[in-house]
Amino acid sequence: MIQLTTEAVGKYSPQQQMALIKAVKPEAASFAIKELIPSDHDRPIARDFFAWVKEENITAQYIVYSVDDLKRYIDLIENQILPTQNHHLLLVLGRYSEQLLSNPTDLLPFFPTLQQVKCRWAVCAFGPRELHCLTAAALLGGDVRIGFENNHLDIFGRPAKGNAQQVKQLKNTLSMLNIGTYDANAFRAIIKEC
Q1: Could you give the CA distance from residue 97 to residue 92 in angstroms, rounded to a whole number?
Q2: Cα–Cα distance for residue pair 58/170, rounded to 1 Å
Q3: Nearest to 192 by CA among 122, 120, 91
Q4: Distances, alpha carbon 82 to alpha carbons 15, 22, 52, 108, in Å
Q5: Residue 171, CA distances (Å) to 8, 59, 77 in order
Q6: Which of 34, 63, 66, 193 sits most deeply, having the most CB atoms within 10 A of its CB?
């Protein structure tokens, strides 16, 4: 499953990010709520855009960086700015912490509010403890996203040879814990149910 990621990177406006999705029409796309809907003033445009995303059957992954972002995500769903189906939630650990470092305990503040979420959720984590954070998320019932964009080190703290090595280490860890993984088609089916 190929997912396009939108990001402002201090350069792109919400309208430019939305235009990219409309031009490409990917199977899936991720959207940082704080970037695409920076204020309540942006709600009408966001409502129209995300209704279009749903009509085009694009799986939306909403990115949240904090508990406040998570609460805002829930509010946007309750107020029908975001559709309630065909989406996924991504909690990002360590992105705005000192030196981009995450820790499995970073998940704990999300949990009281996460209980209100009706869709599947996932975690990605920055820094050398990425695998630890993702393992904790999987043990708690979440999905995981791993890759070089967040961390360049393997489980032993050495430079990883590539994303494939990191994915293999994570898959082996989850297998030892008897936690199953999904192929793309199974994941598509699960997300469509949300």
Answers
A1: 11
A2: 27
A3: 120
A4: 16, 17, 11, 25
A5: 31, 24, 33
A6: 63
**Structure-token match 């003033």, residue found:** 41
Q: How confident is the model at residue 10 (pLDDT cuts 50, 70, 90)?
A: confident
| Percent of the chain at pLDDT exceeding 70 | 99
pTM: 0.92
CA distance 129 to 94: 10
pLDDT at 148: 79
Half-sphere exposure at residue 131, Cβ-oriented, CA atoms within 13 angstroms: 19
When computed from its CA atoms, the radius of gyration of the chain, rounded to whole angstroms, is 16
- One-letter amino acid identity for 105? T
d(CA 82, CA 49): 9
Report the side by side order of strands in the sheet with 87-93: 3-5, 28-32, 59-64, 87-93, 121-125, 143-144
User: How many residues appear in the chain?
Assistant: 194
Decide if 133 contacts 107 (C-beta within 8 A).
Answer: yes
DSSP string for residues in 98-133: GGG---GGGGGGGHHHHTT--S-EEEEE-STTHHHH
pLDDT tens, position by position, 70-118:
999 999 999 999 998 889 999 999 887 777 789 999 999 999 999 999 8
